Amino acid sequence: MCYRSTLAVFGVFCCVAVFMAPGLCCLSKEYATTDMQCCPMCHKGTVVRRDCTRQLGTWCISCVNGTFMNQPNGLTKCFPCTPCDQGPGLFAQQGCTGTKDTVCDVVSGYFCKTLMDETGCSLAQKHTSCDPGHRMKRPGTSRTDTVCESCPPAYFSLEGVNCTVWTT
After folding, report:
1. Closest by CA position to 40, among listed 27, 54, 55
2. What's the confidence (pLDDT) of residue 2?
């Protein structure tokens, strides 16, 4: 529901009536304050230090190192940057800035088990090594694990990479 105050002037006496509709309807570039007022949003990379008043606009401050804000907002705290050191196999492909979160990717020999939309990979795992008697059907990539398969009859594999025919 919206609460948007509407002023109405009646007749010669200039009586002012305030009509309140249910719910506060702020414009798309505004946010609602706790005292039911609409204030201009802060830009990307900043958050609200002080809500607007009738005399002054919204006071916004920049996000400090280790935090970011990727959207216009009416928030009082920036989001914490995603660390890429949550486990082995990750590195920061793009560092965190005031307006963008860190984007993590995987190092060679690992694949991404949990891929997030904007922050890249959040959990990496080492590629599977094929056991002896098996060969690598498909090598692992940054997004998929290695696929192994058994060697066919009359073939063997000591190292789990390629199958070799038995000799007599």
Report:
1. 27
2. 53
